[in-house]
Amino acid sequence: MADYDLWHHGDREVGEGLVDLAVNVRLPAPPAWLRAELAAALDDLAAYPDVTAATAAVAARHSLPESQVLVTSGAAEAFTLLATALRPSCAVVVHPQFTEPEAALRAAGHAVRRVVLSPDDGFRLGDVPEEADLVFVGNPTNPTSVLHPAADLLALGRPDRLVVVDEAFLDAVPGETESVAGQPGFVVLRSLTKTWGIAGLRAGYVLADESVVDSLRAVQPPWSVSSLAAVAVVACCRPEALEEAEKLAVAAEADREYLVSGLTALGVEVLGEPRGPFVLVRLPGADGVRERLRENGFAVRRGDTFPGLDGRYLRIAVRDRETVDRFLAALAAVRRLPA
C-alpha cells in the first residue's frame, strides 16, 4: 500500500502574506451576528460546557430525535470516536477523500482497505468489498468536490454494515441535495466550521442510530465541546442562519463556476463535476507550480498526500471573483516560467 502523509492538511500550506486558496473555510469569518453571540457568551466561561441546547437545536434542524444526535468538537472528532468505539472486521475508506478517517482508524489499531475511485470517470462511486462492515465516504468529497447521488450511497448499505458519510461540505451545496441524514445504518457527520468560518472554534455533530450515538458518547472525552462551540451550534441551526447559509451556497456556486471557467480558459484540467466550495485540478508539474504560486503570494493545496492522487494534482478553494482574478493572473504567469 502506497505511503501518504495522512496528517497533512491545507492549513500547512498557508503562511504569512499568502492569499489562502488552500483551506476550504469561507473567508472572511465569522459573520458579525455570530461574533456577537460568541462575545455575549464570554461571561459564562467559568461554567462547564453543556451541550443540551445544542443537541436540541441540531435535532430540530434535521427533524430527528435528540437520541440520534451527538455534538462534537468539529466533525473531525467524530472520526476518532468512531475508530475508538467500533470494532470493525473490515474497515474500508473510499479515496481520494479527507484523510482523517483512515488516520484515525490506523491510530486505533485497525487495518484499513482502500477503494480508490478514478478521475477518468469523474470519481464515480462504485462497489466496495462485500465483507466490509464499516465504510467511510465523503459527500461532497474533499478533495474531488464530487457530489455522489444519495441513491449510490444508499446502495452501499447492508444489514451488518455501517456507512459513514462525511457531509462536512453539504451545507455549501444549494438545497443540501443528496444527504442521507436519518437513514438507518448510516452515520452522517456535519461541520459548522466551513460555511461560518469558525475552524478555530471546532463545532460539528453526528447524526446516527441511537445505538451508534450511545457508543460514541461513551468514549467521548468529558466536556470536549466548548461552551462557545455549543453556542455556535445553536446559533447556526436557527432558521435565519439556515436561510443565510443557503444564500451563501448559491453565491459560492456562482463563484465556483467563475473559477472553473477561468481555469479552463488557461488550459487547466478541472476534474469531475465540482459541487463543493473547491475544485481539483490536474496539470503537469503541479508541485512546481504550487511552489511558484507561493513565491507570488498564493497558497493552494498539494494533492499528493491524498491516496489515489499524486504530484500532478492541486486543490483550489473557491474565493470571491476579485481574488480569483488575481490568482488566475498569477497562475498564468507562473506557468510561463521555466520549470
From TrEMBL:
Keywords: Aminotransferase, Antibiotic biosynthesis, Pyridoxal phosphate, Transferase. One of its GO terms (biological process) is antibiotic biosynthetic process. The lineage of its organism: Bacteria, Bacillati, Actinomycetota, Actinomycetes, Pseudonocardiales. This is Aminotransferase. It is an enzyme of class 2 (transferase). Belongs to the class-I pyridoxal-phosphate-dependent aminotransferase family. GO terms for molecular function: pyridoxal phosphate binding; transaminase activity. Transmembrane segments: none annotated. Its EC number is 2.6.1.-. Pfam families: Aminotran_1_2. Residues 19-331 form the Aminotransferase class I/classII large domain. It comes from the Bacteria. Its cofactor is pyridoxal 5'-phosphate. It comes from Amycolatopsis japonica.
